[in-house]
Amino acid sequence: MKHWEAMEAFVEVVHQGSFSKAASRLNVSASHISRLITHLEERLNTTLLFRTTRSIRLSEAGEKFYQHCRELPNALASAEEAVSALTQAPMGTLRITCATTFGERYLAPLLNDFLMQNPQVDLDFHLTNREVDLVEEGYDLAIRMGALRDSSLLSRRLCDRAEYLCASREYVDQHGVPHTLAELSKHKCLMGSKTHWVFSQNGQRKEVKVSSHWRSNSGPALLDAIRRGLGIAQLPDYYVKEDLASGRLISLLPQYQYPYTGVWLVYPRAQQPSPKLKAVCDYLIERFEKEDIFASWSKRL
Fold first, then answer.
1. 157: helix, coil or strand?
2. pLDDT the model gives residue 300
3. What are the contacts of 280-286 at 24+ separation with CB within 8 A?
4. Which of 22, 30, 64, 101 could form a disulfide with 219 if both were Cys (CB 3.0 to 4.6 A apart)?
5. So what's the pLDDT on residue 46?
């Protein structure tokens, strides 16, 4: 900062043609300007200005130094204006990550609507079922499901989410239904990307690991397998609620269903969230609060 102050003083002296005018412009004393220039010359080990009682004149070294420094004050002002603009209106690139199916079905249409209303915002939308490191990989926002792990990240609730253990009528007719968690070991279990199922037992969260002959990290593939009677599986409500309502699928062990957890907007901690991040979070939460986004997607099928 001391070097910058000296260069700023030097450029202003050349612009104004005198130490006193430069001092007035920078709101400091002329003696302070003189000391800054002297220290700058000592650091560079050369004379930049020839001084007389009436005028100043650039040396050859001073002329060369001035050519490199003269745009610095304007560049700093432009940088400050750019940052100031960012703190006032949404602009710049938003890097967002989300689980694949939820992102494709529900987030992508809403984000596209958001971009239409905010043309100065660009989007980098990455869909993966892997839990990315937001800070390490440079993401502004992640949409995550279920119970959040303890971390230094901040979060806002986007919507409710519940998991349903389901089977088709054909499977139930052939294999019956489990009545306790222990009886799950007797059934054909279909697994998604998780290594366990989550239930509530005696008011406590209980994770149950089951053996599986079928596994996929794709929610739609898992749903198709349930519908075809290949076994039982646990899926979020937005996958199965229409099949449950129509009777195509049957809910199993409802007495052990874990209470609503949620879908979360998760982002790195910062002193002041950027306008683009705050705007997209506010927009998504408002849309989910005002509309049945899951039903809206189903109508498009």
1. strand
2. 47
3. 280/90, 280/94, 280/96, 280/111, 280/114, 280/121, 280/141, 281/141, 281/156, 283/110, 283/114, 283/117, 284/107, 284/110, 284/114, 284/158, 285/156, 285/157, 285/158
4. 101
5. 93
**127 closest CA partner among 113, 114, 139, 118:** 139
Which residues are within 8 A (CB) of 35 and not within 5 positions of it... i.e. 6 or more apart?
none
Token pair 């596209």 in the structure block, residue: 112
What is the C-alpha to C-alpha distance for residues 10 and 33, in angstroms, rounded to an integer? 8
Could you tell me the two tokens for 240?
């199965």
- Say what the pLDDT of residue 32 is: 92
Chain Cα centroid distance, residue 14: 46
Helices 275-290 and 108-117 pack at an angle, to 10 degrees, of 120
Whole-number Å distance between alpha carbons of 138 and 275: 17
Lowest mean pLDDT among 44-53, 94-103, 220-229: 44-53
Task: Decide: 147 and 266 in contact? Cβ < 8 Å.
Answer: no
Alpha-carbon separation of residue 143 from 132, 139, 166, 179 (angstroms):
11, 11, 25, 34
Cα Rg of the chain (Å, integer) = 32
Query: Is residue 118 a contact partner of residue 279, using CB atoms and an 8 Å limit?
Result: yes
End-to-end CA distance of the chain: 60
Tokens, residue 196: 């366990």
Task: List the structure tokens of 68.
Answer: 């490199």
Write out the DSSP string of 242-290. HHHHHTSEEEE-GGGBPPP--EEEEE---SS--HHHHHHHHHHHHHHHH
At residue 195, does pLDDT exceed 50? Answer: yes
pLDDT tens by residue, 231-259: 999 999 889 988 999 999 999 999 999 88
* % pLDDT > 70, the chain: 92
How far is the C-alpha of 143 from the C-alpha of 265, rounded, in Å?
5
CB 268, CB 154: distance < 8 Å: yes
